[in-house]
Amino acid sequence: MTALPHTSSYYAASAKPFELQAQLTESIEADVCIIGAGYTGLSSAIHLLESGLSVVVLEAARIGFGASGRNGGQIVNSFSRDIDSIERTVGKENARIFGEMAFEGGRIIRRLVKDYQIDCDLKDGGVFAALNSKQMHHLEDQKALWERHGHHGWLELMDNNGIAKVVGTDVYTGGLLDKSGGHIHPLNLALGEAQAVLSLGGKMYEDSAVVDIVQGEPAVVKTAKGQVKAKYVIVAGNAYLSNLLPQLQAKSMPCGTQVITTEPLSDEVAQRLLPQDYCVEDCNYLLDYYRLSADNRLIYGGGVVYGARDPADIEAIIRPKMLKTFPELASVKIDFAWTGNFLLTLSRLPQMGRIGTNIYYSQGCSGHGVTYTHLAGKVLSEVINAHATRFDAFAQLPHYPFPGGHALRVPFSAIGAWYYSLRDKLGV
Asked: Residues 182, 291: contact at Cβ < 8 Å?
């Protein structure tokens, strides 16, 4: 086997044992062929198998190799742009269905963890932390928005004294606790979902990059050494799709985010930093996010590299952010540092659609993918089972190419990010 190994992350180092799946070396058939064994592909596979269809999953590298196995591990509700942005785009009446779906992804994760007994260090509770009064007003509006869409009983606004009880730092003016949020070991979640796929009779192949999709009924999905004939195809490669379907590239851009993980902290220090063991993200445009691992390490991430280049020194980028939040960690050793890619859209809303009659895709989570991808898998399984209402709602969202085309999307996006970051710093 020559499958690419996982990146040198804390998650890979602490992953549950999982047998490497064989490479596809023959011609096989299935009802559905799924390209990509990240959360979108795995959620799609489980929901389709549960509905009685036969499924083959093809993964170019390893299960959870991309963002699904590298992310911050935070269960955050809604979408990268919130429901009010969708309302402004499609109108309040048409946006109602998105409000109904905005809190479903986390419920799907918890259902899969329970039904398939997935050991992924699931913890409840997520905090949005405000750095100034403008961000605090935004959180007040967010609470009202989410409750208007049915998310009652889960949200708690915190003033300066309140947030000090859940985060051991003095940099925040307040925050919003979502008790239905939470955090997980993301790679172990992916591996547990892959085991669920196998237990349901699905077939999975690693080291099986797709080199061509021949449209037709059935479609033929080709790898270097095999192929799958399928009634339906789901393309779930996201930021790691490469050039397989060029028509999906113009309206999206891969971006990198960086994560570091400390050495294990003492119980006393861990309790002081995050006494309720919640995960936290701030409210900046280019936000920071962090949480404790099961073995008391602080996992801290942030920053965006447009175009998904790998920085030469990840620790040099993220450690100063961590120390600004928690100065007491100045002498703490960093054991792991890694980067991972996510796919950004101009609207920061996900893209879901169909190519021809039987090739479906979902991409462009824009840094908000843990919950959305699990919802997307369910929605894609619905449309394949002839229930298209929710798929159609996503498919009708307008999407536009980045200004300046492929060559200028990186510098233009970086300029935009600089502008919003400056506004964050000034609190305007």
From this structure: no
Residue with tokens 């059935």: 218
Close Cβ partners of 137 (under 8 Å, ≥ 6 residues apart): none
pLDDT at 372: 95
**Each residue of 230-241: pLDDT tens digit?**
999 999 987 677
- What is each CA distance from 99 to 73, 75, 95, 176, 286, in whole angstroms? 23, 17, 6, 19, 24
H or E element at residue 373: helix 369-384
Q: Which of 128-132, 216-220, 301-305, 325-329 has the lowest mean pLDDT?
A: 301-305
User: Based on the number of CB atoms within 10 Å of its own CB, is 96 exposed (0-12), middle (13-18) or buried (19 or more)?
Assistant: middle
Helix (H) or strand (E) holding 179: strand 174-183
Letter for the amino acid at 358? N
Torsion angles phi and psi, residue 343, rounded to 5: -110, 120
Task: Give φ, ψ of 37 to 5 degrees.
Answer: -105, 50
Cβ neighbors of 237 (< 8 A, separation 6 or more) are 35, 36, 38, 60, 66, 244, 363
**b/e map of 124-160 (b: 16 or more CB within 10 Å)?**
bbbbbbbbbeebbebbeebbebbeebebeebbebbee
Q: Are 100 and 149 in contact (CB under 8 A)?
A: yes
> CA 311, 317, 323: angle at the middle one, nearest 5?
160
Give backbone dihedrals phi and psi of 136, rounded to 5 degrees, phi first: -65, -40
Q: Which pTM value belongs to this model?
A: 0.92
pLDDT digits (tens, 9 = 90+) for 328-386: 999 999 999 999 887 777 777 889 999 999 999 998 877 788 999 999 999 999 999 99
User: Percent of the chain beyond pLDDT 70?
Assistant: 91
With beta carbons less than 8 A apart as the criterion, state whether 235 and 241 touch: yes
DSSP string, 302-358: EEEEET-PPPS-HHHHHHHHHHHH-GGGTTPPEEEEEEEEEEE-SSSS-EEEEETTT
Strands 227-235 and 219-223, how do they pair? antiparallel
| Rounded Cα gap, residues 279 and 294, in angstroms | 12
Q: Is residue 307 exposed (0-12), middle (13-18) or buried (19+ Cβ within 10 Å)? A: middle
Distance CA 421, CA 428 (A): 10
What is the pLDDT at residue 38? Answer: 96
CA dihedral 60, 374, 239, 20 (to 10 degrees): -20
Total residues found in the chain within this entry = 428
